[in-house]
Amino acid sequence: MVSRSYSNLLDLTSGGSPTFSRGGKKFPRVATVAGVLSDLDDENRSNGGSDAPSSISQERMIIVGNQLPLRAHRRESDGDKGWDFSWDEDSLLLQLKDGLGEDVEVIYVGSLKEEIDVSEQDDVAQTLLETFKCVPAFIPPELFSKFYHGFCKQHLWPLFHYMLPLSPDLGGRFDRSLWQAYVSVNKIFADKVMEVITPDDDFVWVHDYHLMVLPTFLRKRFNRVKLGFFLHSPFPSSEIYRTLPVRVELLRALLNSDLIGFHTFDYARHFLSCCSRMLGVSYQSKRGYIGLEYYGRTVSIKILPVGIHMGQLRSVLDLPETEAKVAQLRDKFQGKTVLLGVDDMDIFKGISLKLLAFEQLLTHHPDKRGKVVLVQIANPARGRGKDVQEVQSETYATVARINHVFGKPGYEPVVLIDTSLHFYERIAYYVIAECCLVTAVRDGMNLIPYEYIVCRQGTDKLDETLDLNPSAPKKSMLVVSEFIGCSPSLSGAIRVNPWNTDSVAEAMDSATMVPEAEKQMRHEKHYKYVSSHDVAYWAHSFLLDLERACRDHIRRRCWGIGFGLGFRVIALDPSFRKLSVEHIVSAYRRTKNRAILLDYDGTMTSQSAADMSPTAEAIGILNKLCRDPKNVVFVVSGKNKEILTRWFTSCENLAIGAEHGYFLRPQNSADWETCFVCQDFYWKQIAEPVMQLYTETTDGSFIEAKESALVWNYQLADPDFGSCQAKELHDHLESVLANEPVSVKSGQHIVEVKPQGVNKGLVAERLLAMMRKKEVLPDFVLCIGDDRSDEDMFEVIMSAKDDGSLSPVAEVFACTVGQKPSKAKYYLEDISEILRMFQGLADASEQSAKSVSFSPQRVLIDKKKKKKRKRDEVEAEYEARRYGVTEETKENKGESSVLGEKRKKMENPEDTMVPKEGFDDENKLLRTVFVGNLPLKLKKKEIVKEFTKFGEVESVRIRSVPIIDGKMPRKGAVIKKRINENGDSVHAYVVFKTEESAQASLAHNMAVVGGNHIRVDRACPPRKKLKGDDSPLYDNKRTVFVGNLPFDVKDEELYKLFAGIKNLETGIEAVRVIRDPGSSLGKGIAYVLFKTTDAANLVVKKHNLKLRDRELRLSHAKPNDTPSKRKISSQPDTNSSSGKRSAVASRTPDDANKVKAKANLSYQGLRASKSGTQKKVHTRIKLLAKSKSQPTMEQNSGKKKRPAVAARKEKALQAANASKLSGTKRKLGNRTPDNAGQKKKARKSM
């Protein structure tokens, strides 16, 4: 069944009145083009289109060729005029159907050999569609003549067979009108395909050079069409093909296919070379498949010669007519050796060269006269013109001369058959021939040798006719030209150069003199290949490769660009998208600590430019970015430091990395530094002579000597030869430098030798280290590069967020230049887009600087004071409501009850030190994830439904945890106001069936569930109260504090880690691993007691000591530094991680500011604004830091009450009364300087 759209079209052409529904209109399925229209289901109808679903459910192949595989016969009877059609059994398009499978519906699109009158075209189209599933393309005679006999046969066909139009007699000059006719006919074919195609399901297979621009028309209409193309003719070398005026248009049209097939590797190699030289598109071979990366799409290359239809040949061999013809020919050539040639009568088949070689055979070997006969079957020429007439006249003259010189009564040396033969007659000649000669000077494939081999295998009846033993081995001999497509697959044939008539004559003689056993061996080898690689095998293999090439269509985002025949489709992975300037500028404005990494070569300037120095525009943009105090800008290049110093001397604050990061300079006024200890570059004496050798033999190449590296550049050399030489040089250098501390890398038109470990990733690591040294975590990272060397930078910044080098809410933009496989998630097309993007960032920095400098300093100070007063008032108001401090409680309860029961419970050190949190089932820990910031009333089944997409959920545990419980809240847990009046939030533990599902669910972090941005992290074990805190382990000079450990680290891992340190003569006495109570989830700490103080000192000096890819923090344990004291001590240890979190207990202004800064850093970037609900939530968080630092009630007992208590009670009372009148957001009106001073003194006394 055909698609519904075509059935509706036939309704219109048949004269019937179309029925229009009054309901809402929906597009038919043929209009649901990926990237153009959304899928809409067709309405249920009762008309003739109701059978469409059956055609949609079945896999379908649309085969498009110049001619339909049909034979047409005109009925001339008076009562019944019309056309009769039948299948053309000899057509390759019909034969390949056997390889597609019975479950694949095949529809043919093509033209008819006969001219159909316009009045009959509708009836013929209806008949062909219903009977043969063929869609005819009716082409006007004049247009067809220009298309086929004009452009195809006068331009493409001669050029593809290596004949240049050097004179008007040899093909003629290029005619633009013929090219326009060629494009017009291809457009007609495209329209016919569009009538029947279901683009999401159908495969389209286009055949041969007649329809080379058809892929462009189909791809333009259906961006995700599954399209294959097979070229049945040779593809010329680039030197020949580049003479075609429309060379680029044809190449781009072919690249709009998903799979391009060729008969031999030579044809494919020439096509790939043309793409490389004329379009700059290079190919890659991966796992046996060759592919071209073309605008994000991978165009696959298929190399497989077509086969013959074994069933058809065998059925013809069994015909009685064949048996009778074989008997007739046996009697005719009795006692003679028959050499057979079957060729078309055209200039490329080499018939005249074959006749000259046979003439020479008879001349030099008189014994062959009368014994050897050459039967030449000359099929009618497919083309027409003067060259065909010349071939015919030359052939007839040569045959007449040979027969006149060497012929005698009863012996005719050459038998020329120039009339049409039935297929069985040709088969009979194959059967009786001892040798087959195919000496074409250029031919795409030529299946004559394959047919000959199968026919020589014969049948039992033919063996009886020829008086042969059916059980005896068969034999055959082949003499084939080197320039035909089947030659590489026939390894047992005698290959010849047809232009060398002497060698062809010797091959003919050898073929008649080969021993019988060798003939049998050659035949057996050929028959095994031909019978297994038939046309069904070829078609099935092509379909499998086409399915493989198209399997990623559904998940790619596609859109078209370009006009006319320059149209192409950009296909991108959903996670790889173009970087929007508006998006990155918006993120740039929101962030405060920015890191910008910029490759220079190929990113800021073109690598092919004569002058690669930065333009004035680029320098100006860099200066604007560097002047912004929030930015750290690093430019990385492969150039040496002298050149970069000269180019960027005007950029004072610009950090530069030279020679791919070997040399670094943090700013203009600083000295250059090296990333490695100074080493001897003696290896240059080995590498440079090798490079010099390849430079002398590769024209256009040169050596670029750097202080730390040697680079061989072949950008100006021939692309193919330069690439070949680069591969050889790479292998050569690797062999001679195998024992040296260097690495050999291949890049874009370069081969580089440099010290091991030097890459641009070092610059990224150095930049992040510089910002960590300033105690700043970047919340904006931009990295741009264009080639393989920049992938190291992308890898470092993409993984930096996981190892804690970036802010938890950092926005990371890894961007590559052009669409190609990369670790980056974004791309920009070219240098102009990059400069436009940087100009947007620079403008944002200038606007920000102007807005800050516009306000006087006094106004800024006043705003800060006003903000501080408002914060104090809101804190007092909140404390009154939270802890129940009212007039009634003040009068009826004592001072010890002012804060209320909740405050007492919160300040109980026992409750604070043992928070009941964590996942207590260690067996399920790795399969469990923590989910925070959930809506309060979320049910278990809703959580299960949300996380089932990652795998089967075993169980869910929901817990409600107070926000204020004596510790800082989880990082990122509070993003929106989702807390009740008691300040509670909800989190849960989700247990999966497998660890893989738990790992996959971590990608759900920051997803919106019930209006909340949830927090997903690994589940951690519960923190238990430690015993034995009085152990000398924590108060000893031999103890080392180890931070940033994995939460599930084992004692044995630390023993093994420290035991592997060199020069550590003494061992470990004790190890204590605990959870760090002050850190976020996923980290732990440990105390390691060594046997000697020297050992502890040695370990502390170690840098870059890692465990499970975590860089450990090592320091000496401080006196009285126990785990519990790190939690509650009023004398904080600022050198330890938990001590920093408890530093608020000291109540000093500096430490209080540190706590507030820590809280602000945790939530930086997660707040869209500071108004309304979010400001209120963050006020509570800051109050948490204050309340945590207050002494407990037990600590207050027995001590003199501080004057601050009365002041705090008075303020709380005023706030409670004010809230009743004006709400929680009303400011406290009467604030006197005395009150403010009293509060300040109270804080100092605390």
From TrEMBL:
SMART domains reported in the protein's UniProt record: RRM
Give the residue ranges for region: Disordered: 1110-1246
Query: Which is a Gene Ontology cellular component entry for this protein?
Result: cytosol
Q: Where is the composition biased (Basic residues)?
A: 1173-1185
Record's protein name: alpha,alpha-trehalose-phosphate synthase (UDP-forming)
The record's EC number reads 2.4.1.15
What is the scientific name of the source organism? Answer: Sesamum alatum
What InterPro entries does the record tag this protein with?
A: Glyco_trans_20 (IPR001830), HAD-like_sf (IPR036412), HAD-SF_hydro_IIB (IPR006379), HAD_sf (IPR023214), Nucleotide-bd_a/b_plait_sf (IPR012677), RBD_domain_sf (IPR035979), RBM34_RRM2 (IPR034221), RRM_dom (IPR000504)
Catalytic class of the enzyme:
transferase
- Compositional bias ranges of the Polar residues kind: 1129-1140, 1187-1196
Q: Which residues cross the membrane?
A: none
Q: Which GO terms describe its molecular function?
A: alpha,alpha-trehalose-phosphate synthase (UDP-forming) activity; RNA binding; trehalose-phosphatase activity
Return the similarity comment. In the C-terminal section; belongs to the trehalose phosphatase family. In the N-terminal section; belongs to the glycosyltransferase 20 family.
NCBIfam families the record matches: HAD-SF-IIB, T6PP
- Keyword list, A-Z: Glycosyltransferase, Phosphoprotein, RNA-binding, Transferase
| Occurrences of domain RRM (ranges) | 927-1021, 1038-1119
Q: Which GO terms describe its biological process?
A: trehalose biosynthetic process
Q: Which reaction does it catalyse?
A: D-glucose 6-phosphate + UDP-alpha-D-glucose = alpha,alpha-trehalose 6-phosphate + UDP + H(+)
